[in-house]
Amino acid sequence: MKITGPDGQPQQGLAPDCPDTPGRDAEGRTRDAVARLVQRSGPQTAAALAEQLTLSPAAIRRHLEALVADGVLTEVAAKRSAGRAPRGRGRPARLYALTDEGRSRFGHAYDELAGAALRYLRDAGGEQALVAFADARATSLTESLRSRLSARPAADSRAKAELVAEVLTEEGYVASAAPAGQGTQICQHHCPVVHVAAEFPELCEAETRALAAALGTNVQRLATIAHGDGVCTTHIPTVPPVHRADPQHRAAREADE
């Protein structure tokens, strides 16, 4: 690409804007075009993709290999249509299809669908129906937490909080636990249902109740991503150990009384 200045003369030592820069950006745009074509048309052979995108066989193979390595595409066997004669000997045709990860790159309307369903539930059954749904959804979290806590008994609140953070991370919340004041703080750095929870805080409230039920103590939700905070934060107070007096000490105390 020739770059000229205001006088129309070629300029030296200037780089073109990024969109026009060949190399990684161009390859990224081509691979995006390959993935979008598969999205629109369904599983495709390398030859069909090369023809529609005017790419050489070597170029399309390079892009397909990269997309498969990135988890965007996967190879699938071609299905024979009813009534079609079987292919002759040789290697069967390979098709390239989008993976679930590949589809996620193009976005979904799941949030809109979930929001519409919850609005309908609230309108049809009232607030109680919405709370009941949120609690039922949180039940599985409570069960997962109790299972982990019973399988690996923790000596103190901090250790329990770390196990809770471990389970929350497995559920997609990217959680961590750290000491904070008179207790432990669980931080959830991601919320899988943030857009829906922003409209329906009952989901967050049910999750808080699930944490309290699993831990057997009151917890306090300090912040939520759904309400605009950078992280969901829950405080778990330290439960003081119960000291049982020995019989002699107890008898002496009762005598004093």
Which tags fit this structure?
257 residues, Arc Repressor Mutant, subunit A, Muramoyl-pentapeptide Carboxypeptidase, domain 2, two-stranded antiparallel sheet, 9 helices, 12% strand, disordered N terminus
Can you give me a brief rundown of this structure?
The protein has a 4-stranded antiparallel β-sheet with strand order 3-4-6-5, covered by helices on one side. Strands 1-2 form a two-stranded antiparallel sheet. The chain has helices at 24-41, 46-53, 57-69, 100-104, 110-151, 157-170, 194-199, 202-215, 247-256; strands spanning 73-77, 94-98, 175-179, 183-188, 220-223, 232-237. The termini are far apart.
The parts where pLDDT drops under 50 for at least 5 residues are: 1-23, 81-85, 241-246
Number of domains: 2
**CATH architectural category of the largest domain:** 2-Layer Sandwich
Number of helices: 9
Give helix and strand order, one letter per element, not per position. HHHEEHHHEEHHEEH
Roughly how much helix do the residues carry, as a percent range? 40-55%
Query: What topology, given as strand order, has the largest sheet?
Result: 3-4-6-5
> Mean of residue pLDDT?
81
- What is the CATH domain class of the largest domain? Alpha Beta
**Strand-pairing-aware structural class:** alpha+beta
Question: What is the 3D form?
Answer: elongated
* Straight-line N-to-C gap: 97 Å
Number of strands: 6
CATH topology grouping of the largest domain: Muramoyl-pentapeptide Carboxypeptidase, domain 2
Query: What is the percentage of strand-forming residues?
Result: 5-15%
Q: Over the alpha carbons, how many angstroms does the gyration radius reach? A: 29 Å
Major β-sheet annotation: 4 strands, antiparallel
Q: What name goes with the CATH superfamily of the largest domain?
A: Trafficking protein particle complex subunit 3
